[in-house]
Amino acid sequence: MIILDAYEIIDRISSKYKNWHRKAILRFENDLFNQQFSIISLKNFIDLIDSIRNHGLEELGAQTDRGIYKLIRVCDRIKEYTKKKSKMPFRNIYSIFFYKAKPPSGILIVDAPGFIFISGISDPRDNYMLRYSDQPAEMKKRISKITQKYELTWWGSVYQPVLLKRCSINASNFNNFIENVEKFFEKYGYAKI
Questions:
Q1: Domain-wise residue ranges, the chain
Q2: 143, HSE (Cβ side, Cα atoms, 13 Å)
Q3: What is the tens place of the pLDDT at every residue in 136-176?
Q4: Contacts of 158 (CB under 8 A, 6+ apart)
Q5: Chain Cα centroid distance, residue 172
Q6: ∠184-108-150 over CA atoms, to 5°?
Q7: pTM for this one?
Q8: Which of 27, 91, 175, 179 is the most exposed place for a label (fewest CB within 10 A)?
Q9: Residue-wise pLDDT tens digits, 54-80
């Protein structure tokens, strides 16, 4: 058994999947938004955040250049920036973490290559117990079949899988991802916090 937090899970996923290259979601230079080095526009970012909040998810914070483990709430600051051109306390946003309280409960991570959902934890610093031993082959087949049906990929343990989807990050893809995560757990079962 291995104990990881959400940051370590992201690192493991990016090292396992060669196409999961981590980049800055948004980049600011000298307090100006740099579209060229950002993977999403400010308008599309705000649309994405509104869509996530409409699903009842709560922002926990973002991983920025200010520190790996220090979460900074960024969503409202970005909205203020677009209205008032206020200064940004960071240069890059790499990942944004949200908590989903309704079952299946867990952490949603918006990462530059796509979306990640970790069930059964409520904070990125929480321990996620990854159980590698005693994973029956039939359970692996079943989970692979279900994830494929819902256009997802899974990582980790069959007992508490981490679900991910590599796609462009926007409101439409988020809606599709979260609906497929919910359908997956309805079919597979899920851990409750």
A1: 2-188
A2: 21
A3: 899 999 999 999 999 999 999 888 899 999 999 999 999 99
A4: 135, 136, 139, 140, 143
A5: 15
A6: 25
A7: 0.91
A8: 179
A9: 999 999 999 888 876 667 888 888 988
Question: In which residue are the tokens 């929480």 written?
Answer: 126
* Inter-residue contact 161 to 139 (CB < 8 Å): no
Residue type, 185: F
